[in-house]
Write a structure and sequence with these properties.
The protein is α+β, with helices and mostly antiparallel strands. Helix content is 42%, strand content 16%. The strands form 2 sheets. A 3-stranded antiparallel β-sheet has the order 3-4-5, with helices on one face. Strands 1-2 form a two-stranded antiparallel sheet. 15% of the residues are buried.
């Protein structure tokens, strides 16, 4: 059982983990042991998540999401299988926590009368400054 929040948790049957060989430095440890974890979570088939959360999770997952709607997280940061497993599960939980946040809808606003007046006054002031520059002769001498 992966507890995401007190109200949302995923069953073990929803998460599929496989252990593969990690890439990168590590000597014999990398060559012999399968310490990297490949975690797979089927977003579309999950009974634990609401439809809105599934949609937000799919967009948040980006390139980690397959065409079939499965999120694949590869964890190979640590040397042990257990630490990588915990890292992958925590990354999935964090992704789901982000998807649980419902974005606030933007309400279009209009400029206030005061802001309109201030804008027009500053434009008039700037126009006046430029007008005084134009009135001087171009040659510099009168």
């Amino acid at each position: 059982m992966l507890v995401v929040t007190p109200s949302v948790s995923l069953g073990e049957d929803e998460i599929e983990e496989s252990f593969v060989r990690a890439s990168g430095p590590g000597g014999q440890n990398v060559n012999k042991l399968s310490t990297a974890v490949q975690l797979r979570f089927d977003v579309r088939g999950s009974p634990s998540l609401a439809e809105g959360v599934k949609a937000r999770l799919s967009s948040l997952a980006g390139r980690r999401l397959t065409r079939e709607g499965v999120i694949v997280i590869v964890a190979q940061r640590f040397r042990t299988q257990e630490q990588n497993r915990q890292d992958a599960r925590e990354r999935l939980a964090e992704l789901i926590r982000q998807a649980l946040v419902v974005p606030v809808k933007r309400r279009p606003t209009r400029p206030t009368l005061g802001s309109k007046l201030r804008r027009l006054e500053s434009k008039a002031r700037r126009s006046g400054v430029k007008a005084t520059r134009r009135e001087k002769p171009a040659g510099g001498e009168e």
